[in-house]
Description:
Blueprint: H1 2-21, E1 29-32, H2 36-50, E2 60-68, E3 71-73, H3 75-84, E4 89-104, E5 109-121, E6 127-139, E7 142-150, H4 153-157
Parallel strand pairs: 2-7
Antiparallel strand pairs: 1-4, 2-3, 4-5, 5-6, 6-7
Amino acid sequence: MKKIAFLTLLTFTLFSCEQAAEQSEFQVGIVEMNDAKSNAMKAFNDAYLAGDFAGQLEIFADTAKAYVNGQLTTPEAMMEGFLAGRTHYTDIKNLNRATTTTTYDNGRVFSNYWFVWEGVSKSTGKTVTTPAHGYFTWQGDQVVQVGYIFDSVDYVGNMGNSEESEPEQL
Length: 170
């Protein structure tokens, strides 16, 4: 009786493992959360929220490109621009955060960050919110391309004229 129970259990276990190993013909990669690359992207965005990008430039390759709403810049200039937004906004938050890293079968690796940016305009007092997406393109352990996409109409429109500086264009 023990042998029959053991063989039955073994058969179900092998069948379950075989089912888990099958891949859909439409699957083209693996998506992970809380992996090292996703955590690096979370740390980058946490540094933004803390208002201090110290040490964050180290994750970027020397030749890395940055895009903010399709405009080419450098990672360093992008970070400076993001921090300059604090001249115009307080209580900055990233709500409903989701971060994943996808490794495609062709070897390409992307970390993606979806969130809702929120801040209170120093000029108008209005709470501005906009859905946003950020991505890191990885080669090995370095980011070779970074991008952030968001609707900047309300963001720029509620900057006003600060006496400290002119409005930043991201």
